[in-house]
Amino acid sequence: MSGFELEGHRPTWAEVNLDALAANYRAVRERVGAGVKVMGVVKADAYGHGAVECARRLAAEGAEWFGVASPEEAFTLRRAGVNQNILSFGGFWDGQAGECLRQRVVPVVYRLDMAEALDAAAGEAGVVADIHVKIDTGMGRLGVRYDEAAEFASKLREFKNIRVDGLMTHFAAADEPRRDCFTEEQLRHFREAVAAFRERGHAPTYEHAANSAATFAHPETRGNMVRPGGVLYGLWRDVLPPLADAPEFRPVMSVRTRVTLLKRVHAGETLGYGCTFEAAREMTVATVTIGYADGYARALSNRGRVIVRGRLVPVVGRVSMDLTLLDVTDVPGVETGDVVTVLGEDGGLSVPAEDIARTAGTLSYEITCGVSARVPRSYLAAGS
Prior knowledge:
8-stranded parallel β-sheet; TIM Barrel; alpha/beta; Lyase, Ornithine Decarboxylase, Chain A, domain 1
């Protein structure tokens, strides 16, 4: 779906460049080498890019594993025909053990009652279910505490219908060089937990800990599988620490809209809710059909920048739910219907997600994840 093909629809859309996604995946794969698998993390609808289409393209590039946040996200991929291994980072909820088995979703386990439920479901099905166990080495969210890993490993031996096929942890500050000692401590705790599991008879195939930042900044953490997320989608400037040899990842998403109305505004007049912008001169103001319900954050009011006809122009007034105002006074020849680039590149200019995030006081991940479902995605690839 291109802008032209949106005729008959509200002219606001996102473009997802699958060739850029593939190039970013290859950059990770080349960096980690042949002995390390690359799990494509497609949770949160592939960080807002569209999990099904992104997973299909990553599978075509050779991805053997996908990471999701929940069984529901995994089931969506299965319904779309994605057949690769899927790891559910959040485990599963009450009543989902059987469905995880039926749909070949590997859950992350961090409580004994989860193991018990899956063991019972696997026993009824006459199968042995694979699990990955998460070790909490310092993030403090999900996971078995590293200093309780030996006890947990011993208790898991009581379940005959599950197999620990993976051990994992998650780093809290791999992107912050000043906290490298903390990352090193987490890795040490993880290795101790892995040893405890192996000493108690478990033989996990996979040991994985590295997110995007750790994959590049801490090669010693890679194990035999890494879990890149943001870098796959070209989100890296506020995710990776400064590195001399970091690849130039390609942004995957652009968001565009069109000018729907142009009007003159006189000096002294105010614009938008709360009258937060007062015109200091005679102005031409464009109304565009995008707002915070589309994911264009209200925090960008009177602060954001977008591209119109090869010019960076400012947002004026408060961003409202469905509409935003732009100062296009200095844009020669501006017309109703002109394309407005809210996120991405146009005419040699760029509005990266990282810059939007910095202005809004957040992270680039939140910018793309926040592009709402009412913004249709257009998937672009060579030959499409």
